Amino acid sequence: MKAFEIKNISFSYPAFPDRKILEDFSLEIEVGSFVTISGAVGSGKSTLALLLNGLLKPGSGSITAFGETDEKKLKPLVQVVFQNPENSFIAETVERDVAFGPENLCLEQKVIRERVDSALKTLGIENLAKRRISTLSGGQKQLVSLAGALAIKPRALVLDEALSMLDEKTQEKVLNLLKNLCKKERLTVVLITHKDSEYKIERGKCLKT
Predict the structure, then answer these.
(1) pLDDT of residue 38
(2) What are the percentages of helix, strand and coil residues in the chain, rounded to 5?
(3) Under a CB-based contact definition with an 8 Å cutoff, are residues 157 and 79 in contact?
(4) Which residues have CB under 8 Å from 41's CB, separation 6+?
(5) Coil, strand, or helix at residue 81?
(6) What is the pLDDT of residues 101-113, one digit of tens each?
(7) How far is CA 19 from CA 12, 42, 43, 45, 59, in A?
């Protein structure tokens, strides 16, 4: 089974129906792979991220993720982490916000607690658990947003410029962590960036839009 099968999709935003953001675009991504998609501003990278987890629907063509096409089923399977973490925060404190996704899955409180603790520990930010999100730096907020996505335990993680506020050392640490999750847990990672040389890490595959 492929992680993603994108076949001949085209997409335009309703406000600009004559402008094709993506046109006749096809792509296949293997389960457990780490893929980088890079391109200039306005090339459709963020639009693709939203299409991958069903937040947007293509005007034509099809997108299948792990055998699913129903956008309601795609959301827990495919988590998108955006450049501006402020757009994703729901709760006031770190641990409450990270717990929001697992709570929506109607998991038991014990399981939710375990997932929150594990996600924070994985990213090395367990010391921030009780902090109010409003007191965090930009980089810390990006890590919290990523922890919230990991706590859901998705099968694919799409990072849309989601590490841009981190210093180079922390970027490398997080990316190596994600590569390990690809190998050990078959997590599929799609890293979207406007600069192909931004992340100094060995990649299995690089795609340019």
Answers:
(1) 87
(2) 40, 25, 35
(3) yes
(4) 194
(5) strand
(6) 999 999 999 999 9
(7) 6, 12, 12, 15, 12
Angle, in degrees to the nearest 10, between helices 138-151 and 109-122: 140
Q: Is 42 exposed, middle or buried (0-12, 13-18, 19+ CB in 10 A)?
A: exposed
Strand partners, 93: 132
**What span, in angstroms and rounded, lies between the C-alpha atoms of 195 and 41?**
10
Name the token pair of 50. 């939203």
Which residues have CB under 8 Å from 158's CB, separation 6+? Answer: 49, 52, 53, 78, 79, 80, 81, 189, 190, 192
Greater confidence, 152 or 75? 152
Give CA 195 to chain center in angstroms: 17
Confidence bin at 69 (pLDDT 50/70/90): confident
pTM: 0.89
The rounded distance, in Å, linking the Cα atoms of 126 and 104 is: 22
Closest CA to 146 of 198, 79, 194, 56: 79
**Residue whose C-alpha is closest to residue 160's, from 55, 3, 50:** 50
Phi, psi of 156 (to 5 degrees): -140, 145
Q: Which residue has the tokens 């994108």?
A: 6
